[in-house]
Amino acid sequence: MKEPAKKRDELAHEVWATAEGFEDHLVLVSSDYHRFLAEAAVAAKKAGTNEIPIDSTLIYDGSCLVSANDLDVLREELRIGQERLTDLIQGYLYEPLLDETGGGFADSRRRIENDRDIQARVLNMMRQRKKLRTD
Protein backbone atom coordinates (compact mmCIF):
# COMPACT_ATOMS: atom_id res chain seq x y z
CA MET A 1 0.00 0.00 0.00
CA LYS A 2 3.01 2.28 -0.24
CA GLU A 3 2.17 3.23 -3.81
CA PRO A 4 -1.26 4.73 -2.99
CA ALA A 5 0.30 6.59 -0.04
CA LYS A 6 2.98 8.00 -2.31
CA LYS A 7 0.36 9.11 -4.84
CA ARG A 8 -1.67 10.73 -2.08
CA ASP A 9 1.40 12.63 -0.86
CA GLU A 10 2.12 13.87 -4.38
CA LEU A 11 -1.44 15.08 -4.82
CA ALA A 12 -1.57 16.75 -1.43
CA HIS A 13 1.87 18.34 -1.27
CA GLU A 14 2.93 19.11 -4.81
CA VAL A 15 1.83 22.31 -6.52
CA TRP A 16 -0.86 22.29 -9.21
CA ALA A 17 -0.82 24.87 -11.99
CA THR A 18 -2.20 25.58 -15.45
CA ALA A 19 -0.02 26.08 -18.50
CA GLU A 20 -0.69 28.11 -21.61
CA GLY A 21 -1.22 25.80 -24.58
CA PHE A 22 -2.26 22.87 -22.36
CA GLU A 23 -5.80 23.91 -21.51
CA ASP A 24 -6.99 20.30 -21.07
CA HIS A 25 -4.27 19.46 -18.58
CA LEU A 26 -2.99 20.49 -15.21
CA VAL A 27 0.70 20.78 -14.44
CA LEU A 28 1.95 19.05 -11.32
CA VAL A 29 5.12 20.81 -10.14
CA SER A 30 7.41 18.96 -7.75
CA SER A 31 7.72 20.32 -4.23
CA ASP A 32 11.49 19.77 -4.69
CA TYR A 33 11.53 22.80 -6.97
CA HIS A 34 9.73 24.93 -4.41
CA ARG A 35 12.18 23.81 -1.74
CA PHE A 36 15.03 24.77 -4.09
CA LEU A 37 13.49 28.22 -4.67
CA ALA A 38 13.01 28.78 -0.94
CA GLU A 39 16.61 27.81 -0.19
CA ALA A 40 17.87 29.97 -3.07
CA ALA A 41 15.82 32.95 -1.83
CA VAL A 42 17.27 32.61 1.68
CA ALA A 43 20.80 32.33 0.26
CA ALA A 44 20.24 35.41 -1.94
CA LYS A 45 18.91 37.41 1.00
CA LYS A 46 21.92 36.42 3.13
CA ALA A 47 24.23 37.44 0.29
CA GLY A 48 22.43 40.78 -0.03
CA THR A 49 21.32 40.18 -3.60
CA ASN A 50 17.99 39.81 -5.36
CA GLU A 51 19.27 37.19 -7.78
CA ILE A 52 17.62 33.81 -7.40
CA PRO A 53 18.79 31.21 -9.91
CA ILE A 54 16.26 29.37 -12.05
CA ASP A 55 16.94 25.67 -12.45
CA SER A 56 14.92 24.71 -15.51
CA THR A 57 16.17 21.11 -15.35
CA LEU A 58 14.69 20.71 -11.88
CA ILE A 59 11.41 22.22 -13.09
CA TYR A 60 11.28 20.01 -16.18
CA ASP A 61 12.37 16.77 -14.49
CA GLY A 62 10.10 17.26 -11.49
CA SER A 63 6.93 18.28 -13.29
CA CYS A 64 4.34 16.42 -15.28
CA LEU A 65 1.18 17.08 -17.24
CA VAL A 66 -1.95 15.52 -15.80
CA SER A 67 -4.93 14.96 -18.09
CA ALA A 68 -8.56 14.49 -17.16
CA ASN A 69 -8.11 10.80 -18.02
CA ASP A 70 -5.19 10.58 -15.57
CA LEU A 71 -7.43 11.99 -12.85
CA ASP A 72 -10.21 9.53 -13.75
CA VAL A 73 -7.75 6.63 -13.41
CA LEU A 74 -6.55 7.99 -10.08
CA ARG A 75 -10.11 8.39 -8.80
CA GLU A 76 -10.80 4.76 -9.70
CA GLU A 77 -7.63 3.62 -7.91
CA LEU A 78 -8.67 5.61 -4.85
CA ARG A 79 -12.18 4.13 -4.98
CA ILE A 80 -10.76 0.61 -5.10
CA GLY A 81 -8.36 1.44 -2.27
CA GLN A 82 -11.24 2.74 -0.18
CA GLU A 83 -13.24 -0.45 -0.81
CA ARG A 84 -10.26 -2.61 0.13
CA LEU A 85 -9.68 -0.64 3.31
CA THR A 86 -13.36 -0.86 4.25
CA ASP A 87 -13.29 -4.63 3.69
CA LEU A 88 -10.16 -4.95 5.79
CA ILE A 89 -11.65 -2.95 8.66
CA GLN A 90 -14.99 -4.74 8.55
CA GLY A 91 -13.54 -8.19 7.95
CA TYR A 92 -10.79 -8.07 10.57
CA LEU A 93 -11.58 -5.33 13.09
CA TYR A 94 -15.35 -5.20 13.47
CA GLU A 95 -17.22 -7.73 15.52
CA PRO A 96 -19.46 -9.84 13.22
CA LEU A 97 -22.45 -8.92 15.39
CA LEU A 98 -22.12 -5.30 14.22
CA ASP A 99 -23.10 -6.22 10.66
CA GLU A 100 -26.63 -4.85 10.26
CA THR A 101 -27.36 -7.34 7.48
CA GLY A 102 -26.75 -10.26 9.81
CA GLY A 103 -24.02 -11.64 7.55
CA GLY A 104 -21.19 -10.99 10.00
CA PHE A 105 -19.23 -9.10 7.33
CA ALA A 106 -18.72 -12.39 5.47
CA ASP A 107 -18.58 -10.58 2.11
CA SER A 108 -15.76 -8.36 3.33
CA ARG A 109 -13.79 -11.33 4.67
CA ARG A 110 -14.33 -13.23 1.40
CA ARG A 111 -13.06 -10.29 -0.67
CA ILE A 112 -10.02 -9.99 1.59
CA GLU A 113 -9.31 -13.71 1.34
CA ASN A 114 -9.41 -13.45 -2.46
CA ASP A 115 -7.15 -10.37 -2.57
CA ARG A 116 -3.57 -11.66 -2.82
CA ASP A 117 -2.04 -8.26 -2.13
CA ILE A 118 -3.95 -7.75 1.12
CA GLN A 119 -3.31 -11.35 2.19
CA ALA A 120 0.44 -10.88 1.65
CA ARG A 121 0.37 -7.69 3.69
CA VAL A 122 -1.67 -9.24 6.50
CA LEU A 123 0.74 -12.19 6.58
CA ASN A 124 3.70 -9.82 6.69
CA MET A 125 2.08 -7.87 9.53
CA MET A 126 1.50 -11.09 11.48
CA ARG A 127 5.17 -12.06 10.98
CA GLN A 128 6.30 -8.65 12.21
CA ARG A 129 4.10 -8.90 15.31
CA LYS A 130 5.42 -12.38 16.04
CA LYS A 131 8.98 -11.15 15.61
CA LEU A 132 8.37 -8.23 18.00
CA ARG A 133 7.01 -10.62 20.62
CA THR A 134 10.05 -12.90 20.38
CA ASP A 135 12.64 -10.10 20.39
Reconstruct the topology from this structure.
Blueprint: H1 2-13, E1 15-17, E2 25-29, H2 31-47, H3 56-62, E3 63-67, H4 68-93, H5 106-113, H6 116-134
Antiparallel strand pairs: 1-2, 2-3
Helix pairs in contact: 4-5
Can you give a write-up of this model?
The protein is about 65% helix and about 10% strand. It has about 140 residues and is mainly α. It has one domain (about 1-135). It has a 3-stranded antiparallel beta sheet with strand order 1-2-3. It is elongated. The two termini are about 25 Å apart.
Order of helices and strands: HEEHHEHHH
Helix percent reads 55-70%
Number of strands: 3
End-to-end distance, in Å? 26 Å
* Overall 3D shape: elongated
Number of helices: 6
Oligomer designation: single chain
Number of domains: 1
Question: In short, what is this structure?
Answer:
With 135 residues, the protein is mainly α. It has helices at 2-13, 31-47, 56-62, 68-93, 106-113, 116-134, and strands at residues 15-17, 25-29, 63-67.
Keywords, separated by commas or semicolons:
66% helix; 6 helices; 135 residues
